[in-house]
Amino acid sequence: MPTTELKTTLDKALQVNLDPKRYGTFAEIGAGQEVVRWFFRAGAAAGTISKSISAYDMKVSDAIYGRCKRYVCRDRLESMLEYEQDLNLERLKSERGDTTAFFTFADTVSARNYHGTNECHGWMGVRFQAHPRDESSQIIIHVRMLDTTNALQQEALGVVGVNLLYGACMLHHHPDKLIESLLDNLSTARIEIDMIEFSGIEFRHVDNRLMSLKLVQLGLTSAAMFGAKGKVLQPSEVLRKKAVLVERGSFRPVCNTNIDIMRCAHERFIVEPEVDADSVIQIMEVTMSNLMADGQIDYRDFLARADMLVACGMTVLISDYFQYYRLAAYLSRYTKKKIGITMGIGSVRELFDEKYYTALEGGILESFGRLFKNDLKLYVYPLKDANKKELMTIENLEVSEDLKNLYNYLIDRGCIEQLTNHDEECLEVFSRDVLAKIAAGDKSWEKMVPEEVAEVIKTRGYFGA
C-alpha cells in the first residue's frame, strides 16, 4: 500500500542521511546487515551512523544484551534497543545532544535456513528522539517473510527496515501514513506485518488497537490481536502450544448471550481428551466484513466493541477471514493443539450455504475438508425460535436436501457438537434488542449485558447511552 508520493528505498535512506539532526546505531542479528547497507549505499552515511553491529554468536549477543531464552523474540529486540540507545546518549549526549536527535534501529531475524525448515520471521524496531533533548519514542513491528529464498528475504527485510526508520524520522506525527508506508517498494506477497506497537512521548495519544485494525484494513496482514488489557499481541507468541477456542461475533454490544456461548463451549472443550485445560486460550474474533457492514469502518464503533471485550477480560482477534476454513488454517499455522470454534445455530445454517464456496474448485466439500482436517470441532449454541416456541438445534436445523448426508456425517463423526449446558435466560437476549432499549431510554438493557459492559457503555456514552 504505497504512500501518495512513492520514494525509492535509496531515496528514503539518503533523505535520512541528509537530515543533520539524525544520528544513531544499527544493530542487526540474523539476516545480514541488510538495513544499514542501504544507508551506506545512499551516501553521506558518516553523518547518520554512529555504529553498526551484528552480534551473531549467541555468547557474544548474551554478553552485550543479556541472556535470553529465544533470540528471535520481542524481549531480545527490546534489550537491543534499550542498550544501544542508552549507549548513544551516554557517549554522545554531552557533546552533541543540543543539536542531535539520537536513534537506534534494531532487528533480530530468522531468515530461511539452508534446508528451509525454520519459521521465517523477525522483530524489528526503532527507538528515537523526535527532537534533540527529547524523551525517546519507540515503534516495534513483527514481520513474516514470505519469499522462498534467503537472498530475497534479506532484500525484503532491508526495504521494510528502511521504511520503518524513515517513517520514524519523517512521519512520526502521522502514524496512519507511517503504517501505509511500511510496504513501499514491496508487496504483501513478500512481507506480512502482523503486529505494530507505538509507545513513548510522540505516540502518547495513539491507540494501538486502532493501529492493529489499520494493519488488517490496509492488507499488511490478515489478522491482528490485542489482549485483555488492550495491549497489542503478536499472534504466534500468544497461540504457540495453546489449545484455542474462538467465538466469532459482532459484539455490538457484548451481551450475556455472547458470554454464555463461550462459557458453554469452554466447559465442553476442556474435557476433550487431547486438551489440557491450563493451556486453553479463549479468543473473541471480529471480522472486517462485520466491521464494514455499512461500507466503511466507524472507528468509534470499533473501539466501543474493543473496550467491551477488554472489560470482559477477552483476547480479541481482528481478521479478514470471512470463511471459517481460512480462520482454521490461520490458527493451525501457530499451534498443533486442539482448535474449537463456537457459534450459534444460525451460523451453522450459513456454513452450509454453498454460495460462499463458489471460488473453491472443490466447493463446499473442499471447504469442509480444510476446516476439519486438523481435528477441529464446532460447538453449537441453540436458538429459541420466537414463532415455534422451541429450541433450534443441530438435530432440527434444516439444511439443503443434497447436503443432509454430509451434515449428518459431520455430526456423527463428532465434528459438530450441540451445546446443551446453556443458561435459559440468555436465550432471550439479543444484541439488537439491547441497542433498541438503549435508543429508547429503557434501562432494562443493563440486565442484558455483563455488569462491566454496562459500566463501559454508560461511562463512555456508547451507542447513544
SSE layout and pairing:
Elements: H1 9-17, E1 22-29, H2 34-42, E2 49-53, H3 58-65, H4 74-96, E3 101-110, E4 121-129, E5 136-145, H5 150-170, H6 175-181, E6 191-200, H7 208-217, E7 223-226, E8 232-233, H8 235-239, E9 243-248, H9 256-269, E10 280-287, H10 288-291, H11 299-311, E11 315-319, H12 324-334, E12 339-344, H13 345-351, H14 363-372, E13 377-381, E14 383-385, E15 390-392, H15 404-412, E16 416-418, H16 431-440, H17 451-460
Parallel strand pairs: 1-2, 1-3, 9-10, 9-12, 10-11, 12-13, 13-16
Antiparallel strand pairs: 3-4, 4-5, 5-6, 7-8, 7-11, 14-15
Task: Write up this protein.
Helix content is 39%, strand content 21%. It is of the alpha/beta class and 465 residues long. It folds into 2 domains: 9-206, Maf protein (Alpha-Beta Complex); 237-464, Rossmann fold, CATH 3.40.50.620. An 8-stranded mixed sheet has the order 8-7-11-10-9-12-13-16, sandwiched between helices. It is elongated. The mean pLDDT is 94.
